[in-house]
Amino acid sequence: AASAYENVEWINKLTEFVVGVARTKPEVKIIRICFSHQIIARALSSTIVPNNGIWEVGPTKVKLNEVGKELFGVPTIERFHRDHIPSVPSPFLPIGSMPVCENQGMVLSLKDIQILTLQGHPKFTDGIVEHIVEAGVSVG
Length: 140
What we know:
single chain, alpha+beta, Rossmann fold, 4-stranded mixed β-sheet, 3-stranded antiparallel β-sheet, 4 helices
């Protein structure tokens, strides 16, 4: 229920921890999804904002660009989120986009990936997303 842009102690501590690991321990591989995708961007001085009251939820797939297709070996992945990162922070490469949210994921170098983040949830199948929607996700 929290947003990565909130100025609260536990989010601030998490952001500091993530930036510390990313900058001082390049041997540690980091993969983050949704909220944590946004924390990575915040840790690297990017902006996270509400998505104009729009949730991306449902069995709609993100079209991956060439970088995303190379990483996953498939043309699409699922998505589910409320907030978003309007742009891809440097030096990350974008992996895919949708009209409602352009930054659907990013990777730090394709050669030796240190950080990979996804806005959506690739673990959610169509059936899981449909069940969540049917169960009545609170969008407050």
